[in-house]
Amino acid sequence: MIKNVMFDLDGTLLPMDQDMFVKAYFKSLSMTLAPYGYEPKKLIDGIWAGTAAMVTNDGKCTNEEAFWKKFAEFFGDRVYNDKDKFEHYYRNGFDFTNAVCGYTPHAKALVYRLKEQGIKVVLATNPIFPAIATEKRIRWAGLEPSDFELYTTYENIGYCKPNLDYYREILARQGFEPNQTLMVGNDVSEDMVARDLGIKVFLLTDYLINKNDEDISVYPHGGFGELFEYIERENEV
């Protein structure tokens, strides 16, 4: 039986082309911060370096702490005093990136259907964004943060995908049994790795990311219709 479902966000519940999103994100962020002395190329290099620090984080600090420590290597300790400028961007400028995102009513419909059936739902989005940015992206998908038992952000966890400790942490926090939990995502290397812990997986292929050209036939896969049918089959009594 599937009692818990973990959903990825970008490219899963929120349709998007990742490359287009990243370009729009960096463009709007650079325009907002350039007047404060953050030269665009150096800013983007710093963001990528900070992201890499989060991806390799070992849980000894939050991803937020890992990011700002690395980012400060590019601009100095002034960045800590400028956090409010970044927050202002996420409150006022980040919405421009929604223009390159899509929308599917199937995401909200499925999440609500699962909740009606008593299935617990977690948003297992890679926690490289602050909560304010994650909450906005949740709403772009037609959902509310309160729809999820947990949603991971860079403030509340010290691991990233594809580190198995990221999934272990969610299981431990929520008290989920791996064989009763399903991970749904569109990224083969980041999301399907959860299977190594005994978690069931489903690869949503609408916005598939398969950097290593893996054979996806080894995973249950398809669109939202196939996903719902898969859950129904797994929960047949």
Which structural category fits the helices and strands? Answer: alpha/beta
Strand order of the largest sheet: 2-1-3-4-5
Overall strand count: 5
Task: Write the CATH architecture name of the largest domain.
Answer: 3-Layer(aba) Sandwich
Percent range for helical residues? 40-55%
Q: What series of H and E elements makes up the topology?
A: EHHHHHHEHHEHEEH
User: Please, how many helices?
Assistant: 10
Q: Please give the largest β-sheet.
A: 5 strands, parallel
Distance between the termini: 9 Å
State the shape.
Answer: globular
| CATH H-level homologous superfamily name of the largest domain | HAD superfamily/HAD-like
Task: Please give the domain count.
Answer: 2
Strand content: 5-15%
Mean pLDDT: 97
- Tell me the radius of gyration: 18 Å
CATH topology of the largest domain: Rossmann fold
Q: Which CATH top level class of the largest domain fits? A: Alpha Beta
Weakly predicted, low-confidence segments: none
Nutshell version of this structure?
By secondary structure, the protein is an alpha/beta fold.
